[in-house]
Specification:
The structure holds 2 protein chains of 2 kinds.
Chain A (H helix, E strand, L loop, with lengths): L1 E12 L2 E12 L3 E5 L6 H7 L10 E9 L2 E2 L7 H7 E4 L10 H11 L6 H14 L3 H4 L12 H13 L5 E5 L7 H14 L4 E5 L3 H7 L2 E6 L2 E7 H6 L4 H7 L5
Parallel strand pairs in A: 3-8, 3-9, 6-7, 7-8
Antiparallel strand pairs in A: 1-2, 1-4, 4-5, 9-10
Helix pairs in contact in A: 3-4, 3-6, 4-6, 6-7
Chain B lengths: L1 H44 L4 E10 L13 H6 L3 H9 L7 H8 L6 H11 L7 E7 L2 H7 L16 H12 L3 E5 L2 H4 L12 H32 L4 H14 L3 H15 L7 H26 L2 H9 L4 H29 L3 H5 L20 H10 L4 H31 L5
Antiparallel strand pairs in B: 1-2, 1-3
Classes of the chains: A alpha/beta, B mainly alpha.
Chain lengths: 251, 422
């Protein structure tokens, strides 16, 4: 089933066009990887999906992005509610400089998702459990989140993202600042999370894309060159550029 | 070729050494000047914290004071102390002629009558008895006792006469002169008499001014900074505002004084010489400092924190209030304190709005006339009496102490509450 459908999406930074006519459908409860060389626009596209580009003054997005039959680029779209449904994990772990508990409870608090302290405790616990972090931190929930290791911080950020039960989780190179062991943990986690969430992950590592994703889109110079099932893209790409990138001839 | 290379290398090393030497000498010079300055202030000022007292036997004679044997408290308040006070000074030299008696009277502060009165009110049982009372010496004798007075000048060039010196030396010999901690320096308002002048009114004036300044400048500056940094669109107009805020920080303070004079006093008719007007004027000066500090510390909050909050579905307002502003507070607060410290040391604008007036009452609110510490320094530095020299230095010490405490506080806030982020 199609969860997100992007139609004719163009993005401009001032006068410079960063994305050209992107058309891409994202399958529900699957992992979609966006790959491509640096500066190809894959992160820009990801940030279109929860309207994070709004933060950048000079950035303009055109075209339709339909999620649940609703075009999020419509004037009537409430970004606060959109971002409640579409969580995001960033390249560098960015926990709030607050306690672990406060990091997780922040989203549910501002969206009024817990009626009592007990409910909140439950949300925090399940979020951390889903992010495979509970066992490591359950005794120090009230210590600062910035005291964790890099991999733990990133899992904390994932736990924070899933605390509001988003339908979609966007991940912008979530492992680029992590060591191989932490990376493996996150990848395992992604596999687990796709049961309940639709995941879109931007990654530099083709091996990672091949390991975690079911679908892959290849971006180059602001265009979506090719997309399809990961198997097909990696084993039997149609486009020469894709072939060259996959085999490491550029990028 | 090789030789050239070596030459070049030697040159590079020697230029680094030269630079280091110049840097070190610059620091040495700065420290030297600071040391000289502090030494000068302390060596002239420390004596102001001591005050010289003459111990004079006073005969609390009921008849001279027109009191009966068992006076009520009101009677004691209303009694005539002038005669016994005068008499006890004259008694220092029973053979004094009229001119000498006048000189005897001038050996103590004109407050002596009140000091004697206080003694009796504290202990009514003294009535009819004689007791040694501590009386504040005149500022000139105070300076003589502290060794700051040139005794070898010819008599007609001195304010202290030979006769006064003779009596004073006798008293010193008898152990009737004592130096004690000068509490009145901190508890008395300004006075024309150096021995009675204190910093209470200017200290309170400074405190009230700073409080008014803080109450106005802080909220306005923080709101302006938050709006400009987090909400305002970045366009030519906001750039223009930013440039002008920076310009405002560079405006000479006396200009703000003229503004206070022209607008606050002339147009709004606020009371002259009051910390209220002083504080408002100073807040105009402090405003750009706080705005700049607050914007800088808002800028220093990593954008990743804002993105994290926004991506969780926080509104811009929530992102700002829950995350950015709390994280920027240490920087903002220490900037505020430094701005206030600047305002505390400001003299020129306060002179223009009339806080230079002679005030011999302690202000109870920002609406009462008052001086401020730096203006007090200016007033005393202008006074001719020798006794004010040490007061100037002492007042500078108090002001510096105040500033050091504030800056220390700013540092503590910065270090203690600054949160680390990865």
């Amino acid at each position: 089933m199609i969860k997100i459908s992007a139609k004719n999406v163009d993005v401009f930074y001032g006068k410079k066009q960063a994305l050209f006519n992107i058309n891409l459908d994202i399958e529900e409860n699957q992992v979609t990887a966006l790959i491509g060389p640096s500066g190809c626009g894959k992160s820009t596209f990801l940030r279109c999906l929860n309207r994070m580009n709004d933060v950048i003054d000079i950035c303009k997005v055109q075209g339709e992005i339909v999620i649940n039959d609703f075009n999020i680029n419509d004037k009537g779209c409430d970004v606060v509610r959109l971002r409640e449904k579409i969580g995001m994990v960033f390249q560098k772990p960015n926990p709030f400089p607050k306690t672990l508990y406060e990091n997780i409870s922040y989203g549910p608090t501002i969206h009024g998702m817990a009626q009592s302290k007990q409910e909140m405790d439950e949300i925090v616990e399940t979020s951390l459990k889903k992010a495979a972090l509970w066992e490591e931190v359950k005794d120090r929930l009230h210590e600062p989140g910035t005291g964790l290791s890099g991999g733990q911080q990133q899992r904390l950020c994932i736990a924070r993202a899933i605390s509001v039960q988003p339908e979609v989780i966007l991940m912008d190179e979530p492992c680029s600042a992590l060591d191989p062991i932490a990376t493996a943990q996150i990848e395992e986690l992604i596999d687990e999370l796709k049961k309940e969430h639709t995941i879109i992950i931007v990654t530099h590592s083709m091996a990672q894309a091949a390991r975690v994703s079911q679908n892959t889109g290849f971006f180059h110079l602001g265009e979506l060159i090719e997309h399809g099932s990961t198997d097909k893209i990696f084993k039997n790409p149609e486009n020469n550029k894709t072939q060259d990138y996959i085999t490491g001839r550029f990028g | 070729m090789n030789k050239n290379k070596e030459k070049l290398l030697a040159k590079r090393y020697s230029s680094e050494k030269r630079f280091q030497f110049l840097g070190k000498s610059a620091i040495f010079m700065a420290l030297l000047f600071l040391a000289i300055f502090i030494f000068k202030i302390f060596s002239t000022g420390y004596t102001a914290f001591q005050k010289t007292w003459l111990i004079v036997p006073v005969n609390f004679d009921a008849e001279t004071m027109y009191l009966d044997a068992n006076p009520s408290k009101e009677d004691l308040e209303d009694a005539d102390y002038f005669e016994i006070s005068l008499q006890s000074m004259f008694n220092l030299d029973k053979n004094a002629n009229e001119k000498q008696q006048n000189e005897l009277k001038k050996m103590v502060s004109y407050f002596f009558e009140r000091e004697i009165k206080q003694e009796l009110i504290n202990d009514p049982s003294l009535l009819g008895k004689t007791k040694d009372v501590y009386i504040t010496a005149s500022d000139d004798l105070d300076q003589v006792f502290k060794g700051n007075y040139p005794r070898d000048l010819p008599e007609n060039q001195r304010r202290v006469t030979d006769y006064q010196l003779k009596i004073f030396d006798q008293l010193v010999e008898q152990g009737k002169v004592e130096s004690k901690f000068n509490l009145s320096f901190f508890t008395y308002p300004d006075s024309r008499e150096a021995e009675l002048a204190g910093i209470a009114s200017s200290f309170m004036g400074s405190i009230f001014s700073i409080l008014v300044c803080l109450a106005i400048a802080f909220p306005v500056a923080v709101l302006a900074a938050i709006y400009l940094e987090e909400f305002a669109p970045k366009n030519r107009f906001t750039d223009f505002i930013e440039v002008n805020i920076n310009n405002l920080a560079a405006v000479p303070s006396i200009v703000f004084g003229l503004l206070g004079l022209g607008i606050l006093l002339a147009v709004f008719q606020l009371p002259r010489s009051t910390p209220l007007v002083g504080g408002i004027t100073l807040s105009l000066m402090t405003l750009p400092t706080i705005i700049i500090a607050c914007r800088a510390s808002l800028k220093a909050v990593p954008p990743s924190i804002r993105e994290a909050a926004l991506a969780m579905g926080a509104s811009r307002m929530q992102t700002t209030m829950h995350h950015t502003v709390p994280l920027s507070m240490p920087g903002t607060l220490s900037g505020t304190i430094i701005g206030l410290a600047q305002a505390l040391g400001e003299t020129a604008p306060l002179i223009l709005i009339g806080m230079v007036a002679f005030v011999n009452t302690i202000p109870g609110s920002p609406m009462d006339p008052a001086a401020s510490l730096p203006v007090q320094i200016y007033i005393w530095a202008e006074s001719a009496e020798r006794g004010f020299v040490e007061k100037v230095s002492a007042c500078i010490m108090v002001l510096l102490g105040f500033l050091i405490v504030m800056n220390l506080f700013a540092q503590i806030i910065r270090h203690k509450f600054e949160k680390k982020w990865s």
